[in-house]
Amino acid sequence: MSHTLPSTDTPEVPDAARDALLHELSGILPPTSLITHAEELKPYECDGLTAYRQMPWLVALPENEAQVVAILRACHRHGVPVVARGAGTGLSGGATPVAGGVILSLAKLMHILAIDPQACTARVQPGVRNLAISEAAAPYGLYYAPDPSSQLACTIGGNVAENSGGVHCLKYGLTVHNILKLRIALIDGTVIEIGSDAFDSPGYDLLALLVGSEGMLAVVLEATVKLTPKPQAARVVMASFDDLTQAGNAVAEIIAAGIIPAGLEMMDKPATAAVEDFVHAGYDLSAEAILLAESDGTPEEVEEEIAAMQTVLEKAGARSLRVSQSEAERLTFWAGRKAAFPAVGRLTPDYLCMDGTIPRKHLAQVLTRIGELSERYGLSCANVFHAGDGNLHPLIMFDANVPDELERATAFGARILELSVDVGGTITGEHGVGIEKIGQMCVQFTPDELAAFHAVKAAFDPQGLLNPGKAVPTPRRCSEYRLTGTAR
Amino acid sequence: MSDLTQRFIERIQGATAPLCIRGGGSKDWYGNAPRGEVLETRGHAGIISHEPSELVITARCGTPLAEIEAALAEKGQCLPFEPPRFSAESTIGGVVAAGLSGPRRASAGALRDYLLGVKLLDGRGHELVFGGQVMKNVAGYDVARLMAGSLGTLGLLLEVSLKVMPLPAACATLQLPMPQAEALERLKRWAGQPLPIVASCWQDGVLTLRLSGARAAVEAAKEKVGAGDTAPESFWDDLRDQRLPFFAAETLWRLSLPPTTPPLDLPGEQLIEWRGGLRWLKSDAPAETIRAAAASAGGHATLWRAPDELKQRVGAFAPLPAPLMMLHKNLKAVFDPRGIFNPGRLYADL
Q1: A228 close to A172: Cβ distance less than 8 angstroms
Q2: What is the pLDDT of residue B272?
Q3: What pLDDT does A228 receive?
Q4: pLDDT score of A486
Q5: Of A170, A198, A449, the CB nearest to B277
Q6: I want to staple A427 with a disulfide (CB 3.0 to 4.6 A). Which of A399, A417, B71, B252 is the partner?
Q7: What is the pLDDT of residue A11?
C-alpha cells in the first residue's frame, strides 16, 4: 500500500556531491551507524502514517552531539535534505523520508543526562522515550506530565517537534508548557541554547516557536523538561449517556462549575464497542457516549471534586455513573480509552486517525455531520475525543487493498478537517500537519499567513533543507487543492 | 466596541518613520526608551467573545485589562498568570506585548502559556491570524506565542485570545519569619511535593506564602508548611502591581534565575518571588557585575527601572549571544521588513 508523495521542491543534488557527502559521512560515523542498503532502509520508509511511504537515500544514526552536528554541516554543504526522526510513531508523516534525502535518526541519543529533584527538571537527549523520563523521575515522586498514547515508544525529540499532547492536557498542558530549555542545532551546524532553567529568557520566545515546528527549523540535541509532583490520589468517574448532545453538554457543565478535571475523555458507541471487545473494561455498550472524568490531587481534594462532578453529571442526564474504587479499577477504566487506536486497528485492515480541535459547544453538530459523511463515503468511523480540550480523533476505517478506499478515506478525512475549521477550530490539535494535512492548511490559513510560515522557516533554514515539503504548503499546491479538494 | 483596523493599516502602509505602538502607556518605562511616532491602540477596544465553558476570552488589543478581569470575575474565572497592573490604563494588547506574569507564575505558568491566538498587522499592513480560540492547535508554527514579550517589535496586535481558568475555591496567606537562606531551602523542598503553594514572597526576614485550591487541600497544607501568622489576601495584589514600598526605587533590577540558585552575593536589598526564581534587587553595583552574577547562575538580569542614562548605557535586557541575535534579526525581518515597529525597544538591533 503506498501513495504518491507530494513533491518537495528541493533542488536536485548532482551525483558527484552525493559521492562526496557519502564519503564524508563515512568519516564521521562508524559503518554500523550508516545505513545505505535497501533492505535495511525499509523500516524507515514511513512513520506512524503508514499509508505514505518513501525510501530515503540513507539513514544516519549518530551516537553523540558532535556526530549530529558534523552530519548536519556536511549535508548543508552539499545541499542534501535532512529529515530528523525519533521513534517514528508520529501520525501525520512528519518523519516520512524525502526522496534522495538523509534520515537523521536520533534513536541512539537516549541518555537521561540529569534529574534535579529540587528544581523539578530533567535534562535528556532527544532519543529518550517519553515514559522513560517518568520512570526515572518516579523515585523522587515526580513525573513528566504530557502522556501521548504512544508514550511507551515515542521520544522527547519527537514530542518537541509535534508539541504532543495526551489525555491530561487540560490541567497539565501540552509539550510546549512542559519544556524549559532546548539545545538545538541549526542546519549549518550552529549549536544554540534557547529557553532557560530560569522561568523566562530575554528576547523572543523562540522556545514556543521551536516546539511544534515539525523538525523544520532545527534539530533537538537536548531538552530540559519540567517534572511535576505525582498527585497523591486519583479517581475517575465513568458516565454513560443516551445521547451525544447530552454528553457534550455535560462536559460544558463540568467546566462551567469551575472544575478542571485531570482528564476528560469521551468515546462514541462504535469506539466503545471496539475497545470493550479488546480490553473488557466493563463499558456500557448500549450507551451512545461514554465520558471519563478524572480528578487528582490530595485525597481530600479528590473526594470533593469527584462528588461535585457526580452531581453535575447526574443533572446533565447521565444514565449511569461508576466511580473507580481502586487504583486497579481506575486503570481499567482508562485502559480502553488508551487502547482505542489499536482496538480499532483490530477491526479494520487500515484506519486514518483525524485530529481536529473544535470549540466544545459544536461537538454534537460535528459528530452528526461526521455520521453523515460516513454514509456518504461508505466508510465506518469511530470517535474518541479529548473532550476537555475539544480535540477530536475520528478513526476512519478502510481497506487499502480495495480499489479507491484510501482515496475515499482521505477525502472523508479532508471533509472532517474542513468542518473543524468551519466551526472555528483547527485541522490538528496534537498530531501535526506533516504531509497528511498539508492540503487542509490551505483552508485554515490565507496565502499571506502561509507566506509568513515559509519566511519563518527561511529565517532558520534559508536553503530549505530541514524536513522540506512538510507542514506548510506552497502556493501552487493550494491552488491545486482549491480546484480539486485534494493536494495529492 | 470599535474597529480601527483600517486606520491602522493606513498608518502602517503610509509610515515613512518608526511607529511607537502604545496602549494605555502603563509600561512606557519598561524596556528601552520608546521612540517613533505614537500609534494609539486604545480606541480599538472591546471583548469580542467570552464563553466561560470554553475557557477562552477574545478581546481587541485596546480593551482595558480591568474590563477583562471584571468580565472574568463575574463568571468566576481569572487570568491565572496575574499580569501586573502598573496603572488602571493597562490594555490587554500591552499585557501580551510585554509578556509579564505575576506572583502565581511559578505554579500557574506564564502569560505565553495561556496565549492561544492572535490577530495582528505585520509591517506591510497585512492582517494575519495565528493560533485560534481552541486549547490545542499545532497547525503551523506557533507564531502567536512568539508575540508574547516581543514588545510590539514584530507586529501590531489587533486581537488576542487567552485561555482562562476558574478562580480557586479557597485561598490562604501565611507569613513565617525566617532568613533568606532558610526560605530558599524550604521552597526548594516544597517544590517537589504536591502542595497547593501557588505563590511565595520573601522580603526582610519574612516568607509569605499563598495557598490556594480546593478548601480541603488548603487546610491540609497549612499544617504541613508550619504555623504562621495569617496575612490579608490584598498582599498579593500589592506585590503583583508593585505597590509594596520595596518597589519604590530609582534603580531596580529583575533577576530571573533557576529557582534553586543559592542566595546571591550581591550588595543591596532583595525581594524574592517565584520560589526563588525571581529576585528583585535594589543595588548600585555595576551592571556588569549584576549581569555576570545572573548569567553564571544560569539566568539573566533585566534593568527594570533606572535613570535614562544608565538604561541607555547598559540596555534594559541582557545581551544575546551572536547566533541567537541573528535569529532574532531574521525573524524581525520576516514580520517587519522595514523596521518600523518599536525599533530599539527590545534590543538596539531589532
Answers
A1: yes
A2: 98
A3: 96
A4: 57
A5: A198
A6: A417
A7: 62
**pLDDT tens column, B3-61:** 899 999 999 999 999 999 999 999 999 999 999 999 999 999 999 999 999 999 999 99
Q: Cβ(A340)–Cβ(A275) under 8 Å?
A: yes
Cβ separation B136–A357 shorter than 8 A? yes
Quick check: A177 and B109 CB within 8 A? yes
Please give the biggest Cα pair distance in chain B.
63
With bands split at pLDDT 50, 70 and 90, how would you rate the model's confidence at A253? very high
Is A453 touching B (CB cutoff 8 A)?
A: yes
Return all residues near A66 (Cβ < 8 A) that are at least 6 apart: none
Can you tell me whether residue B332 is helix, strand or coil?
Answer: helix
Question: Do B162 and B214 share a structural domain?
Answer: no
Instruction: State whether B216 and A304 contact (CB < 8 Å).
Output: yes
List the CATH number of the domain containing A267: 3.30.70.2190
Indicate if B187 and B137 belong to the same structural domain: no
* For residue A62, pLDDT beyond 50: yes
The β-bridge relationship of strands B206-213 and B170-177 is: antiparallel
Q: Which of B105, B194, B318 sits opposite A202 (nearest CB)?
A: B318
C-alpha torsion sign, points B350, A193, B191, B189? negative
Contact B140 A205 (CB under 8 A): no
Q: Which residues pair with B230 in a beta bridge?
A: B174
In chain B, residues with a C-beta closer than 8 Å to the C-beta of A234 are: none
Cell numbers at A224, concatenated: 530540559
Quick: pLDDT tens for A359-380: 998 988 999 999 999 999 999 9
**Triad A172, A266, A295: Cα angle to 5°:** 40
pLDDT at A387: 92
Q: Which residues in chain B are contacts of A208 at CB distance < 8 A?
A: 112, 142, 145-146, 148
In-domain check, residue A378: yes
Residue A12: CB atoms within 10 A of its CB come to: 8
Provide the domain limits for residue A473: 348-484
Burial B296-325 (b: 16+ CB within 10 A, else e): ebbbbbbbbbbeeebbeebbbbbbbeeebe
Reported ipTM: 0.97
Q: What is the mean pLDDT of chain A?
A: 94
Q: Phi and psi (nearest 5°) for A236?
A: -130, 140
The residue in chain B having the minimum alpha-carbon distance to the alpha carbon of residue A297 is B194
Is A151 in a helix, a strand, or coil?
Answer: coil
**CA-based Rg of chain A, rounded to a whole angstrom?**
23
Q: How many domains does chain A have?
A: 4
Which pLDDT does position A1 carry in this prediction?
A: 39
